[in-house]
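Customer ticket, subject: "Can you confirm the structure for CGNR zinc finger domain-containing protein?"

Message body: Hello, I'm evaluating your service for our small team and ran a test protein. I'd like someone to confirm that this is what the system normally returns, since I don't have a reference to compare against.
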Amino acid sequence: MCFGRKQSKALHVYGADDMLADGSAAGCTSGLALAIGSDLAGRVVICAALAFDRMFVDVARNAQRRFSSPQCQSRVRAAAAHRARKAAA
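Agent reply: Thanks for trying us out. I re-ran your input and got the following:
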């Protein structure tokens, strides 16, 4: 992917072809670039789940979110409980 910048503060992301995956990646890249370039840059966080690299913008009032979604948090807690039960047995 190539990144180009015109004079009007617009970010243009384009690839060599019109593949759906390239378009999706371009949209994600643009969103991340906009978040990093705005006043939300300090709130871009990587999800705390192991082997998971989803990034999100923490818009909670106290900026203390660690997981990208409640489902992700539940999955991590269930895995920890399973490991604790297995260790106790």
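A couple of notes from the result: The first helix runs from residue 20 to 36. Helices lie at 20-36, 70-88. Feel free to reply with more questions.
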